[in-house]
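Hi, can you check this record?
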Amino acid sequence: MKETNFHVNTWIPIKDVVWNDSTILQHHIDTRDFHVSCLSETSTEFKSFTRLEKHPEEYIFNEEEVKLLIENLFEKSGGNIEWRFLSIDEDHCRNWDLKYIRIFRYMNGLVVCNNNFYTLKRKILDPNKIIQKYL
């Protein structure tokens, strides 16, 4: 597969994403409007991290889990609205850290990262911790 740096591709609404399409290796979600850029190339930004391999249960999602997570973040941050500022009350999820949620195929699942390609543990991505005053 061709390797590429992140670039803007065609953006589609979140409802049109096919999460179980294994040819899609990257999903970049603009959380202001929840449109997604889906790429079939590997990323030079996302690297293999030892902690992911040592503790996959803390980081690796399956396709259905990612779909439900993103749907919950979308709904609990306002659903079908024109614009939002998504922020979760956890380290690496505040301010503009979640302007983009980046999802990569890795090992036998999907890894969720913040705007800065920081890998996020499953437990901190809690839609109930969305900071409501920023919405």
